[in-house]
Amino acid sequence: MNFRNLQYFLAAAEEKNITRAARKLYISQQSLSGHIAKLEEELGVTLFERTPELKLTYAGERLALIARQICSLEQEILQETGEISDRRRGRLRLGISYTCGRAILPTILPAFCAAHPLVEISLMEGNYRQLNEWLSKGEIDVLIGYMPIELPGAQVDQILTERLFLACPKPIRDRIFGGDQALLQKAREEGPDIRLFGDEPFILLKKGNRIRAQLDSFTAKTGFLPKILLETENIETAFALAEQGMGITLYPELFLRTLHADAGGADSSLDLFPLPGPETLGALAVAFLEISYRSPAVLDFIALCKQQAGLWDMN
After folding, report:
1. What whole-number distance in Å separates Cα of residue 140 and Cα of residue 134?
2. Does residue 295 sit in helix, strand or coil?
3. Rounded to an integer, what distance in angstroms lies between the CA atom of residue 243 and that of residue 167?
4. 271, pLDDT greater than 80
5. What is the pLDDT of residues 77-116, one digit of tens each?
6. Rounded to whole angstroms, what are the CA distances from 19 to 9, 10, 276?
7. Which of 112, 238, 259, 298 would suit a FRET pair with 119, their CA atoms being 20 to 30 Å apart?
8. β partners of residue 232
9. Chain segment 178-232, per-residue pLDDT in tens
10. Which domains can be identified in the chain, with CATH numbers?
11. Nearest CA-CA partner of 142 in 178, 112, 186, 183
């Protein structure tokens, strides 16, 4: 049984005449009669009483009722798959960390949703381990996270590189640089000598965090040991405490641009200093499984991520 046989049967049932139905379908009477005969043979029933006027049997009436429902569903299928193929409809299952989501998604999702209003979006927020697990199991279509993303079968596309900054309360800055404006300006542009901060308190993320690992790699190379006032799991907690003058913390460039664009300005309580060296560079990437089907909507989202990252232009 196929859709065409059902459609031809319904045409004959509605017209109650083979000649008119065949004309409506732009096929020959012989061809239409052959389709109906094939359907009757397949179902093992007689669908029409061939009196002077074509009349449905009881089996024909029941089939007509069901066939109309089936053909209606066929149209829905064709419409929906058509909308998927031309990017109007689809599904996006996105995995991202909470803080990274706060920094990135407000600049990407509004534009994506405006262009794809019928696309269903499912957002899953988690840590590095959870995100990798979800992607490996096919529970998300796209992962946005920091490299390295070492997942078998995953394609990882780097979309931007960012620096790590010291977020330093201005009273601490003044103790360190005093009135030496030339040295202060050089530190803002090129990065400071980290040893200048040796006597000042630091508010750091706990070990195991990517940013803490970057700092530990940097200090191992320079021999600098920060004076740790406290450690936290939450980067926003560390930044908020730094804003209150409790100590120096580290903060990624992307987050500064998107979440705290006023930090480092004249009215800010913080001054910002980039940490020099390759150890303090971070790379953000989008990742997806190469073997998984990627709908046009998912491909559009990945392209939009790359486009937006280009607009940030952090290099």
Report:
1. 6
2. coil
3. 8
4. yes
5. 655 555 455 555 677 889 998 888 888 888 889 988 888 8
6. 13, 14, 85
7. 259
8. 205
9. 888 999 999 999 889 889 998 999 999 999 888 898 889 888 888 889 999 999 9
10. 3-85 (1.10.10.10), 94-155+289-312 (3.40.190.10), 162-281 (3.40.190.10)
11. 112
Which residues, 6 or more positions from 228, have their beta carbon under 8 angstroms from its beta carbon? 201, 202, 203, 204
Containing H/E element for 276? none
Q: What is the DSSP string of 108-141?
A: HHHHHHHH-TEEEEEEEE--HHHHHHHHHTTS-S
For the CA atoms of 130, 132, 136, 137, the dihedral, rounded to the nearest 10 degrees, stands at: 10
Amino acid residing at 271: D
Query: Residues in the chain, how many?
Result: 315
Is the C-alpha dihedral spanning 12, 18, 23, 27 positive or negative? positive
Cα distances (angstroms) measured from residue 26 to each of 19, 21, 48? 10, 9, 21
Rounded to whole angstroms, the Cα distance separating 7 from 147 reads 55
Return the pLDDT at 252. 92
Burial class (CB in 10 A: 0-12, 13-18, 19+), 70: middle
- The tokens for 10 are 């319904």
Identity (one letter) of the amino acid at 173?
A: R
Candidates 293, 288, 295, 292; CA nearest to 83 is: 295
Flag whether pLDDT at 315 surpasses 70.
no
147 pLDDT more than 80: yes
- Residue 63's CB is within 10 A of a number of other CB atoms, namely 22
Answer yes or no: pTM beyond 0.90. Answer: no
